[in-house]
Amino acid sequence: MRIRELFQQVPKGLAGDEDAIHQMRVAGRRLRVALPSLARRPEGTRARRALRVLRQLAQTAGVSRDLDVISGLLGDWLQTDPAVTPDSLALQRRLLAERRRSRGRMAEALLDLEIARLRRDLRAIVRRKGEDVFTSLARLHTEREQRGAELLAELAGLGDRFDAVRLHGLRKSARKLRYSAEILAELRQRPAEAADLFRELQGKLGDIHDGHVLAGWLAHQAQLGERRGLDSLVAEARRLEAIFHQRSLDAHQDFLRANPRESIERALDAMGRTRFVA
After folding, report:
1. Burial, 126: exposed, middle or buried (Cβ in 10 Å; 0-12, 13-18, 19+)?
2. For a 10 Å CB count at each end of the chain, is N or C smaller?
3. What is the pLDDT of residues 255-270, one digit of tens each?
4. Looking at the domain assignment, is residue 72 inside a domain?
5. What Cα–Cα distance (Å) separates residue 53 from each residue in 2, 6, 221, 233?
6. What pLDDT, in 10s, does the model give residues 186-208?
7. For 181-190, how does the pLDDT look when each residue is reduced to its tens digit (9 = 90+)?
8. What is the DSSP string of 215-245?
9. Residues 6 or more apart in contact with residue 58 via CB below 8 angstroms
């Protein structure tokens, strides 16, 4: 199922379809979690090669996806911003143009990936059939224990500090655990309570990341404007940068108020584990 999801999205993703790019990355990430847990020979040549190409695929589509998200974020804001100016709209046009260029580069880069080889490798892995349920559950148990301990340690080390890079790292770790929880729920035929908890945590961390990325893009535009003597555009870029930086800070406070450690422990408990002490 996840393999079909991936290859159904590739043609539309190559054409620049925003939703297809997102779904392509999601399907690829899910496969990267599923293969080590479910494949009969996860350490084999085909599995390792498939994982490498899946990682390259996610990285290739990543920049374009970030630009899709922040262009939507800026567009939504400008629709209701009472202080919108011609410079605001000029910045929006710049962002949309950068997104178009990025999609073109992404399509070229995707064509350079070994997509046909990936498809053959995945088909061969499927033909071998998956690992037995008990072995897969044991692998997922180990994955949950290791990643859960790492996530709690990362969270404890960060405390209540705003560090956008490390918070994004938390998001990626939560996403991997979410996908593992989804697989566990399918194998056990139980509700995906843990996956829902990780999805909520991932969403809050995503709000932090998106505001931070847009603020960074606007800061870069201000720097470019300063070199060219575009004073009014610089002022507008700085105004919007401050708005989205604050939105990122506010999202961080919302994340802290939600008691993320408790949410993580509840999710890990729902996956069937004993409580960690970190």
Report:
1. exposed
2. N
3. 999 999 999 999 999 9
4. no
5. 15, 12, 33, 41
6. 887 777 889 999 999 999 999 99
7. 998 888 877 7
8. HHHHHHHHHHHHHHT-HHHHHHHHHHHHHHH
9. 25, 28, 29, 32
Q: Are residues 50 and 109 in the same domain?
A: yes
The helices-and-strands tally (H runs, E runs) of the chain is 10, 0
Report the pLDDT value the prediction gives residue 275, as an integer from 0 to 100: 41
Q: From residue 249, give the alpha-carbon distance in Å to each of 73, 156, 200, 211, 244.
A: 16, 19, 18, 8, 9
Residues 15 and 123 in one domain: yes
Range of the domain at 263: 132-273
- In 3D space, the residue among 242, 240, 177, 233 whose CA is nearest the CA of residue 205 turns out to be 177
Q: What are 94's two structure tokens? A: 């710049």
* Number of C-beta neighbours around residue 247 at 10 A: 19
The 10s digit of each residue's pLDDT in 65-124 is: 889 999 999 999 999 999 999 999 999 999 999 999 988 888 888 878 888 888 888 888
Shared domain check, 107 and 36: yes
Place of tokens 């399918």: 186
Is pLDDT at 254 greater than 80 in this prediction? yes
Listed residues 116, 131, 146: the one ending a domain: 131
Whether residues 165 and 212 fall in one domain: yes
How many percent of the chain have pLDDT more than 70? 96
HSE on the CB side for 169, CA within 13 Å? 14
CB 201 within 8 A of CB 260: yes
